[in-house]
Amino acid sequence: MSRSDYRFSFPLRVRYSEIDGQGVVFNAHYLTYYDTAITEYLRALGFSYQTMPEETGTDFHLVRSLVEYKAPIRFDDEIDCCCRTGRIGRSSIQFLLGVYPKGGETLLATGEIVWVNTDQTTRKTVPVPAGLVRRIEAFEQRALQDG
């Protein structure tokens, strides 16, 4: 996937506390970068992830996380964490992520995050809120929901 495939990116700067003894970003921090980018992506769509559980009685749970490292990212590097929705199932959303140097085209890392929406009382899967599906599809300018 190229950078032009993403309609959203969030800028980050690598902090000293995020690097390991080899001087590169410690692997677990990529998931924090991805989580931040997804949160900001949803915020840009006008979706309040924070109020969803109390308003709907449902919440998303992480069921898959994947990080693929392409090139080292070092202390003080400025990066763009790009985010898009890959697909929306009945109860799941797949987010695809790419990390690039600020304003650059060199792919540094990729990621996939899958959330499943669940009723917080029964712990059973429930459909992704229709309003969220509409917001995502309008932003991405394409249909994403299966079926």
TrEMBL record:
Residues 22-106 form the Thioesterase domain. GO terms for molecular function: fatty acyl-CoA hydrolase activity. Keywords: Hydrolase. It holds the Pfam family 4HBT. Transmembrane segments: none annotated. NCBIfam families: YbgC/FadM family acyl-CoA thioesterase (TIGR00051). This is Acyl-CoA thioester hydrolase YbgC. The gene is ybgC_2.
